[in-house]
Fold:
Amino acid sequence: MEVQHRLRLLSRIIGMKGPIICRAIVTVTQRSGQSYTVGRHLPPTWRGGASAGWCRSFSDVSARTCTALVYRKHGDPPEVVQSENMELPLMGEKSVLVKMLAAPINPSDINMVQGTYAILPDLPAVGGNEGVGQVLEVGSQVTSLKPGDWVIPRDAGLGTWRTTAVFNEVSLAEVPRDIPLLAAATLGVNPCTAYRMLSDFEALKPGDSVIQNAANSGVGQAVIQIAAARGIHTINVVRDRPGVQQLSDRLLAMGASHVIKEETLRQPEMKDFFKKCPRPKLALNAVGGKSATELLRHLQGGGTMVTYGGMAKQPVTVPVSSLIFKDVKVRGFWVTQWKRDHAHDERALSEMLAQLAALIWEGKLTAPACSEVGLQDFRGALDRAMQPYVSAKQILVM
Structure:
């Protein structure tokens, strides 16, 4: 309080301008170890106008470090990922200081740590490609964000497994603050993938069908819900496992039209199944191998199979008959590439996020089944994220 009193007295005596007094506050508080929120105690005339760039918000300037989950080499995630204290870089004109709130552990995150993903950051690297944070401070040239906003990464590789970070404005997208935290933390990858695949490959209309494997995955759950909101039927294929009936019941309650096991997909009874359900125009493949081949077999003529994952680590084999006699189309999709292709199209991403947020507000789209884990318990979360038949996504809460 003594520091604040002296600064206010000094400003009245010598008539210091807004940006100068802000810099003085930063210097004094850094040396004194006290925290000070710029703007809260300044005269009203200093809270806007030319001084607003410096004085919009300033988070605890004496705490310029964060806790981050870092890997310095590729390997088994529970072994190579370490918790470390990191210095935050200085704020620039286009910088945004973000307090991370929650970040999931996705399969792509695991693959990136292992060194098997399509894109790999320079080492050492902070893990995590997805999550939601709150803006604490913005640089003087930032125009699209303000303190208090919720933001998610626009692209992969930002490193979201940390308590605080300084990002460039262009690397962030704003999301509504009034959606559930876990829905916001898991919005940028799986729902966006599901939304684009349901929108960009076939002109689906109410009453049409879509078939997908890995239906219990994060993308699979988003496909079920977005399709149901559009009146599109989903045929959802899952692997047999302990508790498969409970899983089936959960997907049906979520809006799935049908849930079948992979073994059933190969049985003659599927002919009778398609007497009461139209053959799908679109197949969504996250597995590969025999599972993908079976999806192709059940596509209607001229339909499309989109591959967005390869959990089985086996190639996609396309029967010649499907190409010649059914004229099926085989495509691939990677949401990271879509975002990069549309990096200069602000409306494309913002409109998609707005429509997904609207579904969340309406109760038609929820976060996948999640387990919230404190950042300090990251090793257990990484281990659980790598186990087979785990339906709950691990969410690191900062």
Remarks:
- The first strand starts at residue 65 and ends at 71.
- The first helix runs from residue 2 to 14.
- The CA atoms of residues 209 and 280 lie 4 Å apart.
